[in-house]
Automatic annotation (TrEMBL):
It comes from the Bacteria. This is Flavodoxin. Its cofactor is FMN. The keyword Electron transport applies. Residues 4-161 form the Flavodoxin-like domain. It comes from Prevotella dentalis (strain ATCC 49559 / DSM 3688 / JCM 13448 / NCTC 12043 / ES 2772). Gene3D superfamilies: 3.40.50.360.
Length: 162
């Protein structure tokens, strides 16, 4: 039986709430990034990494140490999926951009990043998290598009197949 974990960094509680929802749907352990260790990452088969985006596209503050934990872990053979929270109205030019740094860290550690999401149906100007026309993971705007959050989560979880 495979093991799935959900790791999040949250300042306002939004990303934590999304992580809990994902954990419930996947039967996964939910871990605050401040409690993350390489051993926890290496013991999982499937890993979800989530951050909110702050300022000019930066990671949530707790992730600055956490991203080094990810980069230092041996994630060869692991599947990693990324999710992010952002504000597509107030920060339309950096919407969910923090996801890209998590994706890059997971790939640098040898993981296969899965769960890219089409940009169709999103309203934003730019995002570093868009690669080849898709978000590197699940982008959520629980401020301006909270009516779409549940459906986007359900569709993404189903597509992941964890």
């Amino acid at each position: 039986m495979s093991k799935t974990i959900v790791v999040y960094g949250s300042t306002t509680g939004t990303c934590e709430s999304i992580a809990q929802t994902l954990g419930d749907k996947l039967g996964a352990e939910v871990i605050n990034v401040t409690d993350l260790t390489a051993d926890k990452l290496e013991a999982a088969d499937h890993i979800l990494l989530g951050t909110s985006t702050w300022g000019a596209g930066e990671l949530q503050d707790d992730w600055y140490d956490g991203v080094n934990v990810v980069k230092g872990a041996n994630l060869a053979g692991k599947q990693v999926a990324i999710f992010g929270c952002g504000d597509s109205a107030s920060y339309s030019d950096t919407f969910c951009a923090g996801m890209k740094e998590l994706s890059d860290a997971a790939e640098a550690a040898g993981a296969t990043v899965v769960g890219a999401v089409s940009t169709d149906g999103y309203t934003y100007d730019d995002s570093d998290a868009v690669v080849d026309g898709k978000f590197v993971g699940l982008a959520l705007d629980d401020v301006n598009e909270d009516d779409k959050t549940a459906g986007r989560i359900d569709a993404w979880v189903a597509a992941l197949g964890f």
